[in-house]
Structure formats: structure tokens, C-alpha cells
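Take a record:
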Amino acid sequence: MNSVQQPRSNVQDQVLRAIQGALREEKEPRSKRILKILTSTIALSTLVGFPFWISFRGEMNWIWNITAGFWVLYFLLGFAFYFKPQPRLMVSGLFGPFVIARMFLVSTVATIAEILICPSFVFLSSSYEWNPLSPLTERLMDVGGMSLCMGFCGFLFAFIASAIGLVSIRKAVKAVDQKSALILFSILAASQFPVFFVQVASEDLRPFVGYWVFGVINGFALAVGLKRLRS
């Protein structure tokens, strides 16, 4: 009997602490919350933006300037949701602002990191030759050309970003039903939009955008599908 009551008591304590925390946040001055959002956005933008600029500063054009603006806006929106006064609970099936923001931010950062690791799939060239996927992408180019390589990159990177994002909110997605899957797809698709913009805006990449989108959709589907199987 005690062993049953103990977990239930722990859950009740967590819920109570989360509600009390939300009430404390609600009483904080709005200026303090805005300061948290801005400082977090600046810190994360600097953290991911500096290595990006160092690696590709010679190739930055209007497309990448707009893309960088998208990413900064994403960080701003993500932290606005994250710091919104709310009970910070990870409950299966509950997609509150805290959970959505966490997955959105993690997936977006993972996507930026993937470009740093393998910039060739967006036709960037880094002065630091350390792409660990070069042997594989060269083989794909030999077999199926840029179409196959772009489809594979879309699949692989979408799957990795999705998997990392799902791990970051694993307690909220212990069971994935159709509604949850739709929400997850929406968050993941939004996190990939800046890369989609690059694909469409660049004349060199535009012919292959369909293959990339096809790969991305399948990467999303595999990550969410595997999570559903484990639920």
C-alpha cells in the first residue's frame, strides 16, 4: 500500500511545485521576463552564429542573411514560449508552451549544427575540411547524382533533428497518438522551414528541393513512427 501511495505522492508534489512556480512567475515584472527572453536569444544566437560565421563568412549573401533572421526569430519565439508563466510539467500527451518551445529550440539548433557538420547539402564550402559524411555523400553522388544525395541528406538530417527533439521531451511523448503525431510533425516542419527557404531561394538548389522535401518527410515519419512503436 505504501509503495503505491509513494509514487502518487511524488506526482502530487511535482504538480503542486509546478503550479506554485507558475504563480511566482506570474507575479514577476514583465520587464524581467522580457529580459530573460532577450538575453537567452542573444546568447543562443551567438553560440550557434559565431561558428557559422567563422566557417562560411565568405559565402554569406542575402539568402543566408534572411535565413539567419529566421533563426533569430525562432529563438525569440521559442524563449517567449519557454519563459511564459506556466506549470513546467512533462506529462504524456500534454503539449504546453514549455514542451513545444523545448522541442522547437532543440530541433532548430540541431538543424543548424547539421549544416556546420555537412555544409555541402546547402552548397556551402567551409574552410575547415572536416565533414565526416564526405565518403558517404561522394558515394551517393556516384550512384544517383545530386538528386539521391539531396534526398538522403533531407532524410538523415530530418531524422536526427527529430530524434534529438523527441528525446528532449521524451516524458511528454511516452504515448504518441494521431493528434500528438500531428503536433510533432508541425513543430518539426517549422524547425526545417529556414532550410526549405534556402533550397527554394537558391537557383542551384531549387531543382533538387523536391528530393530534399521527400527525404525530410520520410525522416520525420521514421522518427515519429519509431517513437510510436516504443509507446
